[in-house]
Amino acid sequence: MPQVSLTVNGRSHTAEVEGRTLLVELLREGMGLTGTHVGCDTSQCGACVVHIDGESVKSCSILAIQANGCAVTTIEGIAEADGTLHPMQAMFREHHALQCGFCTPGMVMSAIDLVQMHPEGLTEDEIRHGLEGNLCRCTGYHNIVKAIAAAWPIMHGKELPLAAE
Amino acid sequence: MGFEGIGASVRRKEDHRFLSGNGNYTDDINRPGQLYAVIRRADRPHARLLSIDTAAAAAASGVIAVYTGADMQADGIGGVPCGWQIHNKDGSPMAEPPHPVLATGKVRHVGDPVAVVIASSKQEAKNAAELLSIDYDDLPAIASVRDAVAPGAPLVHDDVANNVCFDWHIGDKAIVDAAFAQAAHVVELDLTNNRLVPNALETRSAIGDFDRSSGEFTLYTTSQNPHVIRLLMGAFVLHIPEHKLRVVAPDVGGGFGSKIFHYAEEAIVTWAAGKLHRPVKWTCDRSEAFMSDAHGRDCYSKAAMAVDAQGKFLALRVSTLSNMGAYLSTFAPAVPTYLSATLLAGVYTTPAIYAEVKAVFTHTVPVDAYRGAGRPEATYILERLVDVIAHDTGLDRLAIRRLNFIPKDAFPYQTPVALNYDSGDYEATLKAALAAANWDGFPARRRAAAARGKLRGIGMSTYVEACGIAPSKLVGQLGARAGLYEVANIRVHPTGSVTVFTGTHSHGQGHETTFAQLVSDQLGVPVDMVDVVHGDTSKIPFGMGTYGSRSLAVGGSAMVKAMDKVIAKGKKIAAHLMEASVEDIEFKDGRFSVAGTDKSKALAEISLAAYVPHNYPIEELEPGLDETAFYDPKNFTFPGGCHICEVEIDRDTGTVSVVNMVAADDVGRVINPMIVEGQVQGGLAQGIGQALMENAVYDSEAQLVTGSFMDYQMPRAHDFPPMITSTETTLCTHNPLGSKGVGETGAIGCPPSVINAVVDALRDYNVRHLDMPATPQKIWSLIQANQPRMAAE
Fold it and tell me: What is the pLDDT of residues B383-431, one digit of tens each?
């Protein structure tokens, strides 16, 4: 079986996997990182989003061997070592942006990437379109949008520029 | 510690684990030595099962066992039971055909489970399942309710004539007929409530485990009500007594009704674990979920209202065909009947109502409760009908509603369809919604939209629903095969922290926080010192679970009752310790004090004395501070309110944009306003989804066309505007909290407000009604087919 070496949440791992093993299967079943979820089988829902070398990727849509040599960050790896939540996690809690919690890991990972990709600012409309790849069945997205807008200034260390209407 | 009691938007206790990837959902659980089950399902809607050749699958790599319906039959395994029995108009019981766990003889819908392959890995089980050779003799099939009752339609069950499961009615037909004969206007409307797939983001999963030393079975499952699953599966399917069957529902990733029901897969993995003496895990793929989770709605109604010259409703007549699918799911018969037809008075004083419901079998996935369960169907009928009455008579839609409202001084109000509303103020929620939506400013917004080439419309719905299901004696008379009380155990630990054990279950509703707030409010214990435990039959005395927005109204009331017992016992201990009479002991803010003195003791001091009873009235009082209460509600609760939707339609594409969504609801006493808002927003999203996007489509041969997220349109973030929600409170008069329930209001009130807005936007195109979902194609076709009236505006 092919071997894959990768860094997950800062720790090196080497594993033997079948060629067809998806990255999400390696994370969940091979490494016990069950925070990354599987909500569909057509790459539609985004519950499995992780960061690969800093960019958000649906971990159901790539093979484990494709992540060879990469640095993978999962929901388990974004809080500080002392348990202090990442600003995005903290704002999700503050703004009640999660209910059942199942879409939440993927949603948070997508949201972090979205904010990082937009240092110039984000409008509400851009946030909503930026979440196109993530489904949530509980919240109606209203509070997720609020949480992301609230995390932007914390992550960028400045006020969110007012959107030009 | 700030204020954490009733009324505080306490941030959720459960969020830290969900946000850090430490949730514990069923598929996250793995048992030592676990095997994997994959189910081979029918790929056709109706066929005789001629043979199943399992040899190649059984010989495949990693395969431990292959089972079919015959194996289960040989073990005496029962069918999947139905939890509610409806009676026909003539008093005879409904047809209740067998629902085998694995199909025997015939398959009856795409997705019907035929065989299970159990292997060392999921991949090996999947590979082997494809090696099963199943020989079918295809038979004609029907998917729609109207096709099912057509003369000569293929039968789903050979001994159920005309595919009719039951033919039920409620109300006084003669009085209604007489009122229709006298009416100035009779307004008729035929409408379809579209079939939906619940699609909780977590798919179903189940792990069966068997402990050889104790002989105890454990089922881990994605369930909203583990005790009910234990009862149904243990007693009717696998014949395992309760004390040998533990059901655990850990964190559950959304349910919306679809995880109430006992499903075949739960029985399959539990039974297989007992046969193989190994844990057996099954997790549903999404495409498998589309054809095996119970669907929602799917009914066709003919409605007519008799109206006098001023617009007063005289009588309502509704005749409904309701799709049960191929087999009866747990609560299915109750949904179109006692959870729907009984709501047809709505918020109006309609003095006479007659409703009949024909429930029919089709070659489709079973249909059962989905967020709102019957009340959205009733609300859709009524609130569309009111707007059509306005359309047909020229009366104003707002004025008609107000003219017919049950006035706030008329409560308790007895409807002609059995329910007795305890409280409400429909004018208050209407006013709040009109103000929030700036209803009066709409004409200017419509003109502005027209100048941009857009069609703008506004629509409302004023609704009432029934929650907090329900008094056991009453539901017993109505056909429920269970009581519907709730159970709470409040355990005050020696050092004063508290664990709440509840028979309800949270799958997103934030019970761990709301219930901790109840304890904080009543016992004065900080929220951080309270843990809420649910979802494990080995820890919780009993319970009926979470559905019908019952957890706070019924489960919370049980907690209040148990805490009353804790306080009563604490007073006796305090009286002993402070050498006072029990009558003089007062309890407030977590302290027992002697009235008129400065003597007091904290709850923690009392609990310590209760568990270390050195100085204790041991002759009269048992040690410990741990109380259990069963609470049986006295009535349903009746949340209500007004939803207003504003839309813009692109005339070139027919695309509807929701530009404003307002909900003003009366949900009774609010414990955590933040959570209540979140529940309403989520419900509205599912309501807008139903009205504009979602539709489970079967083709004419009963093949499921919308079988994945590629084909079934799930609402996404950019489909919604910000939502404006508020509450106006009248208290429930018959439970100790005054709370009514909020989990379903959004999905109930919203859909007709959206369609009313769409029809309003199309008013120049001579559109009287269109069925959900109002897709771009449907609207574009209507625009093309109808010449615009010359608007005088």
Answer: 999 999 999 999 999 999 999 999 999 999 999 999 999 999 999 999 9
B201 contacts B254 by C-beta, under 8 angstroms: yes
Q: Report if residue B360 sits inside a domain.
A: yes
Count of domains for chain B? 3
pLDDT tens digits for range B47-104: 999 999 999 999 999 999 999 999 999 999 999 999 999 999 999 999 999 999 999 9
How far apart (Å, rounded) are the C-alpha atoms in residues B251 and B786? Answer: 51
Residue A30 has pLDDT above 60, yes or no: yes
Structural domain including B86 reads 18-139+204-283
- Report pLDDT digits (tens) over B680-697: 999 999 999 999 999 999
From chain A, the residues in CB contact with B717 under 8 A are 127-129, 131-132, 134, 136, 141, 144-145
Contact B28 A47 (CB under 8 A): no
Please indicate, yes or no, whether residues B699 and B671 belong to a single structural domain of this protein: yes
Residue B353 lies in a domain: yes
> Does domain A3-76 sit in CATH 3.30.70.20?
no
Nearest-by-CA chain B residue for A80 = B20
- Do both B365 and B348 map to the same domain? yes
Residue A164's pLDDT band (cuts 50, 70, 90): very low
The CATH number assigned to the domain holding B56 equals: 3.90.1170.50
Superfamily per CATH, domain A87-156: [2Fe-2S]-binding domain (1.10.150.120)
Rounded-to-integer distance, Cα A74 and Cα B212, Å: 38
**B351 and B435 fall within a common domain:** yes
Q: What is the CATH number of the domain that holds B558?
A: 3.30.365.10
Continuous H helices in B214-279: 226-232, 264-276
Q: Where in chain A is the domain with CATH 1.10.150.120?
A: 87-156
Contacts of B13 in chain A (CB under 8 A): none
Assess contact for B566 and B530: CB atoms under 8 A: no
Is there a contact between A20 and B123 if contact means CB atoms under 8 Å apart? yes
Give which of B529, B297, B308, B513 is closest to B400, Cα–Cα. B308
* pTM, to two decimals: 0.97
Average pLDDT over residues B350-366: 98
Residue B13 lies in a domain: no
Are B305 and B340 contained in the same domain?
Answer: yes
Largest CA-CA distance found in chain B, in angstroms, rounded: 90
Q: Is the pLDDT of residue B791 over 80?
A: no
Domain end, chosen from B574, B601, B631, is at: B631
Which residue among A37, A42, A132 places its CB closest to the CB of B716? A132
Residue-wise pLDDT for B285-320, tens only, equals 999 999 999 999 999 999 999 999 999 999 999 999
Residue B634's alpha-carbon distances to B261, B372, B484, in angstroms, are 25, 21, 11
Give the integer Cα–Cα distance in Å for B724 and B664. Answer: 8
* Shared domain check, B365 and B256: no
Q: What percent of chain B has pLDDT over 90?
A: 99
